[in-house]
Design a protein that fits this description.
alpha/beta; binds NADP nicotinamide-adenine-dinucleotide phosphate; 9 helices; single chain; 2 domains; Rossmann fold; UDP-galactose 4-epimerase, domain 1; 276 residues; two-stranded parallel sheet
Amino acid sequence: MTVLVTGAGGQVGRAALRELGDRGIGLRHAELDVTDAAAVMAAVDEHHPELILHAAAWTDVDGAETDREGATRANVDANRHVAAAAKAVGARLVTLSTDFVFDGAKREPYLESDAVGPLSFYGETKLLGERAALETHPEGTWVVRTAWVYDEEGTNFPRLILRLAETRDTLRVVEDQSGSPTYAGHLAPLLLALPDQVPPGIRHIAGSGAATRREWAEAVLAAAGRSTVVEGATSDEFPTPAQRPAYSVLASEHADTPVLPPWRVGVEACMAGFVA
Ligand SMILES: NC(=O)c1ccc[n+]([C@@H]2O[C@H](COP(=O)([O-])OP(=O)(O)OC[C@H]3O[C@@H](n4cnc5c(N)ncnc54)[C@H](OP(=O)(O)O)[C@@H]3O)[C@@H](O)[C@H]2O)c1
């Protein structure tokens, strides 16, 4: 089976291509701009994949607040273009969405049927992107909402924490945001297998369990063998242009949704890659 991966240079794209080996055709941003409908159609037509993993997206959550047009093109319009191309060649589509579609008012894990209410423009675009893909190619689209994704190389929270720990003995990390840290290396294989396992629609797949950002940072530092002290802080100490949900832990209400290992297992697996 041939699988086309958009956003091949990103965290999820890279992990998927490692998993796919020869079966994967990865197109990086420079090779395919997913906001260009004609280019998307031409690429899909050329490769005729059976499955498309649409891992390209605008992921700069704060930047989306100021460049709303750019974020909309990349997260909403592109989803429509990719879904239309998938439909045209009879391919199945797995596209990614986010825990940031929720407002964070809940205090137990968010399920697929819970009411959405994005706090940020990024969350808004991802929600509209979900709908665009599902409306365009309803029989062949799987939307996977995931959360707090990281890998060994990307621009992500664990790498930020490790960088800060190089020059500081104590770090202050927010403990009023809880979520589901998700290792891309664990997520990617499940994304690729999903269309063979469950009907089309929305699924929540993220590292199991719940973590505050402080707990996540502590786990990263412990796995990296660092003795840095982590103190708890509140989000108001670190103002950002985009508002994040205070609580956005994900779980699935469907018994057949594949489950990822506990988030701490993901941290340890990823850190093994860091220190190797
Ligand atoms: N990262 C998270 O914490 C997180 C959480 C929940 C959901 N998600 C979702 O999971 C998916 C994958 O995220 P990720 O962590 O792998 O993100 P990532 O590492 O930022 O990768 C996204 C990739 O998309 C590319 N891209 C951006 N605009 C593009 C365009 N117009 N055409 C083609 N490629 C474009 C980027 O290339 P350039 O860098 O060259 O622009 C980058 O390589 C996204 O849908 C994201 O919204 C991520």
